[in-house]
Amino acid sequence: MTDRLDSKPHSIFLLRVLDVLSSSVLALVILINIWLFASVNPIVWVDNIADDAYYYLGIARSLATHGLFQFLPPFETNGFQPLWQGILAVDGFIFGTSARSMVIECYGMSAIFVAFFVTLSKRWNGSALAGVLVAILFPGIMLSGMETVMIPAFALLFFATTSWKSRGLLGSLIFLGRLDAISLVVARDVYLFIRRRELDLRHYAIILPVAVAYVVFNFWRFGIFLPVSGLAKSLYMTPLENLITAFQYLIWMFPALVLLAVAFVLKRRGGARPIAFKHGAELTICIMAAIVCALYYGSMSGWPLWEWYSWAPMLITYYALLEVIDIAGTDIGRGRYRRVSGTAIAVTAIIFAAGGFNYTLKTLKMVMQAYFHAPMTASFGRKNLELVDWVRSKRLPQGTMFAMGDRAGSFGYFLGGDYRFLHTEGLVADAAYYNALKKDEGLSYVEQQPITYWVAEREQFLQAADVIGVAEPVQGLSMHKGVYLICFDHNAIAVDQSYPSMYSPTHDQNEQRYVFDMKGRVDCPAPLQAQFATLRAGYGNVRAFSLPLQQEAVGVLHPYIKRYLGF
Description:
The protein is an alpha+beta fold. The chain is built from 26 helices and 10 strands. The chain is globular and about 75 Å long.
């Protein structure tokens, strides 16, 4: 939708040098990560893949080996975005399904999409640098093994194509890549109608049949129309009660707004009239898509936000970077080196403030931990691997069933298919568990399962005398029914994996992480039931009680944004 970057020959040379240098650094960091995945103990790098990515990997392993949509037996699930799940399953079928192999495949496929995005950025918008910078600034989207890595490349292709058939194909890929990303397609159509009175909807002749086929397949195979992961997040929520998350989502645009402000000031100083952004159409479309996503999460979902949701703010940041780079290139071409220096200082300050080198530093830290025995900070991912080692050391029989909610991805994935598993948050559970939660009969459902161990990690539990109460699911902010309480005698703790919380500023408060033996399950005493009922009635109270440090750390400003502000 835009022309390529305009610059004089000597400015083009400098920008090409920056493109090559930045791309080389990113490639080197990616290769180091792949080397680490292939050569060192997973306990070093387990947290470099998003915990939710391990759900994808577990299901991909099951599809590649058994043709079943299972994270672990015995529950079939549709808790995934379909295109990424299919790609990983094919990778597993071709290249192998060992735990280490599939992590490398997942990260390698992410790297391919990152390279594709950077290449398209260079081809269509004249700058690989912008693509590299946003990839490093948003590693949760691009380098954590999540499906969102596909969306930026698809978006650039979608904006560039002029064929309605190509738009239909790319729109379908965008939808199958991440369902909420269809907002990008709709936003483009609305923008063109408002701005240019253009209304060409022929691409929906391809997109709509794909969407209908996906919904029909879900109902035929799983008995529900939409992914159980999304349904679980919207369970029993009060409309608009979670609206604060819409504001939090839009805060992700903070770096883009700063960049646009820099571009505006530089244009103003340069005397440009009118002051128009070169990529104004794409910026407007992405902002419209971001607003739609924000309203969706604020009105239809009852959960907090996670970093990979911010694909639309990332695209806005990308186009804002292009604006600043375009101004710098123009200034160099016209010999305005004073303005260029100011631009360079401003952009550099933003990148540093944004923690753009955090991912690189994290990679170097893993190298130090692997080869120089630097100390490793305790994390739930590392505790998950320690728990897997405990299971194997105990030689628990095949088919032993575990139940765990939040933070269970790496545990279930490395545990492997010889064991059974129920995901108590419902993200990779089956439709029966979702329907039980929907009927407020979650506790009755789990009582019917042959669960041997219940794993729970909280900053604090409900307690009365020697009884510990675990609320499940815990992540729902606006979920006043469906949440249930299961209680254990204190002596039921088979393993205590408590460790210092990353959310504790002084590191003197623990994540209380227990493996409960189900033989020690007891009836919840009346005081605990009354306290639980009070918590469940309020907005976010169950989560705030169970994870107070994490809840306080999030607050109104998402932790990712606090990183930008230097908090």
